[in-house]
Specification:
The chain has helices at about 30-50, 60-80, and strands spanning about 5-10, 15-20. Helix content is about 35%, strand content about 5%. By secondary structure, it is mainly alpha-helical. A hairpin with a 6-residue loop joins strand 1 and strand 2 (about 15-20).
Length: about 120
């Protein structure tokens, strides 16, 4: 593309030409391009003002709207949803309740006899 400080745009073909060259490859002179650019500047400013949300394609608008909506809903859920965890008891003086004792059960025996079982 080139930096505007190092090149000029040809009004006939739209090509960027270095400042050291006064005539483009298509034959247009630099002065003609400067005059065409000066005349087109007010229209270019209006075209730039038209850009924005409405200049995007519909699918990009839908994607951006869905992203913003999901971000807002996620943030609202994060902020307004109460925690569902049990409160943590204080450390000093807290005694944890042990699980109930297990009752011994009989060992299960298979209903058929296996040679390596005994």
């Amino acid at each position: 593309m080139g930096t505007p400080g190092y090149s000029w745009v040809c009004g006939a073909c739209g090509r960027r030409v270095p400042l050291r060259v006064d005539v483009c490859h298509c034959g247009a002179a630099r002065q003609q391009a400067a005059a065409a650019t000066a005349q087109a500047a007010p229209g270019a400013a209006r075209a730039g003002a038209k850009g924005g949300w409405r200049s995007l394609p519909v699918d990009v608008q839908a994607l951006l709207a869905a992203a913003v909506l999901s971000f807002v809903l996620g943030f609202a859920w994060l902020v307004y949803d109460p925690p569902r965890t049990k409160p943590v008891p204080a450390l000093l003086g807290y005694v944890d309740v042990p699980p109930p004792p297990r009752t011994p059960t009989k060992a299960a025996r298979p209903s058929f006899r296996m040679p390596w079982w005994r």
